[in-house]
Amino acid sequence: MKRLAFVIAGSILKKRVFENLKKDYMVEFRNRYSIYVSISFAVISTLSISLASGGILIPQKIQAIILWIILFFSAMSGLPHIFTREEEQETALFLRLNAKPDVIFASKLLFNVTLFLILQIVIIPLYIFFLQLDIKSLSSFILTMFAGGLAMSASTAILAAITAKAKGKGPLFTVISFPVVLPVIWTSVDSTFIALSKTGCEGSNNIIFLFAYSVVITVISYLLFAHIWLEE
Fold first, then answer.
1. The pTM is what?
2. CB of 105 closer than 8 Å to CB of 218
3. Distance between CA atoms of 13 and 77, rounded to whole angstroms?
4. pLDDT tens, 121-131?
5. Which are the contacts of 99, defined by CB distance < 8 A and separation ≥ 6?
6. What totals of helices (H) and strands (E) does the chain contain, helices first?
7. Which residue has the higher pLDDT, 191 or 94?
8. Which of 119, 128, 146, 165 has CB atoms 3.0–4.6 Å from 133's, for a disulfide?
9. Phi, psi of 203 (to 5 degrees)
10. pLDDT score for 118
11. CA–CA distances in Å: residue 58 to residues 36, 61, 194, 198
């Protein structure tokens, strides 16, 4: 009986998470504000670096650093929007009354993960083409991109909620996010450099760290989210 109740409760929770996620998709892709801003910044930055280099081959370490700098600042334009929009449009109170904090947190986190994935799908091929990346280990490179994106999205979800509650904008979000995201960027750069310069799975420890970091920061964020979201 307990097992049946647990299954039913899990099914209801899953349904409500995806209903809220669907609503976020509909609203965001109707306005497309954060996506346009993030993609525009990434494309302009990539083209500017390509033109500034003048066709000179950039060292692989620098290529890895530039890639994650572009991904970081592109994400900083879009990731906080999912919470700040609720406060700006004055729908946050309605959301608090009609959805549990765990449902809201899960749906917003999933939205940020998919948003960052969309940015990567657009940015990375352009970056590879214009910066002439020679990837030695494609599997390691793909895993690094996914693990780094997941860790960055998980790290910033709770910070986006804090920024929205403080009526903050993008600059504040970027400032408070950087110390939390710094280990992710550092590890992702190192793992990307290994994927660009060496074959095999030498960067596996970095990838494991990124996945572990995502789990730990998600659990901590989940435990804190209800207090932050319901605090007036």
1. 0.83
2. no
3. 30
4. 988 998 888 88
5. 16, 20
6. 9, 0
7. 191
8. 128
9. -95, 15
10. 85
11. 28, 8, 15, 17
The residues, ordered by sequence, that sit 6+ positions from 48 with a Cβ below 8 Å of its Cβ are none
Kindly state the tokens that stand for 204.
């596996």
Return the structure tokens found at 198: 């060496």
C-alpha distances in angstroms, 128 versus 24, 28, 134, 173, 195?
31, 28, 8, 28, 13
- What pLDDT is attached to residue 188? 93
Work out the number of other CB atoms within 10 angstroms of the CB of residue 59. 11
Identify which of 160, 179, 165 has the alpha carbon closest to the alpha carbon of residue 81: 160
Here the tokens at position 183 are 């280990």
Amino acid at 40: S
Q: Is the pLDDT of residue 10 over 50?
A: no
Indicate if the alpha-carbon torsion angle 177, 66, 151, 83 is positive or negative: positive
Q: Which residues contact 5 (CB under 8 A, 6 or more apart)?
A: none
Higher pLDDT, 109 or 37: 109
C-alpha distances in Å from residue 69, one per residue of 43, 88, 123, 167, 201: 13, 28, 12, 26, 24
Domain containing 11: what range?
A: 2-230
Contact 128, 41 (CB under 8 A): no
| Tally of domains in the chain | 1
The maximal CA–CA distance of the chain, rounded, in angstroms, is: 69
- 53: exposed, middle or buried (C-beta count within 10 Å: 0-12, 13-18, 19+)? middle
